[in-house]
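Q: Here's a chain of 295 amino acids. Please give me its 3D structure as tokens.
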Amino acid sequence: MNPKIANKIADAVIYILVAVVVIILALLIGFILITGVPHISWHFLTSVSQAFAAGGGIRDQLFNSIYLLILTLIISFPIALGSGIYLAEYAPKNWFTNLIQTAIEVLSSLPSIIVGLFCYLLFVIKLQLGFSILSGAIALTFFNLPLLTRNIQESLESVPDLQREAGASLGLSRWKTITGIIFPIAIPGIITGIILSAGRVFGEAAALIYTAGESAPVINYGDFNPFNTASFLNPMRPAETLAVHIWKVNTEGVTPDASAISSGSSAVLIIVILIFNLGAHYIGKRLYAKMTASK
């Protein structure tokens, strides 16, 4: 076959495959938004959910999802950052490093229901943390760690060695080179990892059923003492998230407007994820520009 014709065919196939992916994604998001946005209102976002009556909202479930995401990132990001820096910059290429890499890949492939049951037995039952946001955040850390660690490692490794050599030629220590030169360049990739992990936190349901629970007790948004049972900041209270709420409404919901609640909740979930993604990209670009003095 003529090389030019073969090249055109290859280009056409690639464009078609990319178009298929974009169309599937657009149809999926479009269907969720079209069917769910009409059910979103201020009352829907700011009222508590109802078990039997119609007209319930998702106020507590939405807050619980965001709070759980913040706690999960607080726990998982420092661990993943340290692990990623070690694997990218310090770890020697030997069997032990390969063992760590394999363990990370195995951990990332574990089914969420298995992780949920493990965390239920260990944290909820054995350590008596109960169904709580903290138990849920620890369970989600198991999902986040492999993804974040691998992403941070690859982001750091993608920085050209020329940057490291430049740091060494200036007399900088390895740590100073990493924190002052390598890390700022890798920020966009690290932000991408945070976004991907956040999407999983927002959408995870199976593991949270066994750790954070399916109930959403009434909480007081004016109580800022995290040790009070009714405080919205208390990490030891049960917390039904938005994804769990969608699952619960579709499987056990007896409210007359269960379908509308499910559609509206799904649309809110997609919108929150999109806002988080765009916000994280914006913050990442600002940080990158500030730390590298680039425009």
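Q: Can you summarize the key feature?
A: The chain has a mean pLDDT of 87.
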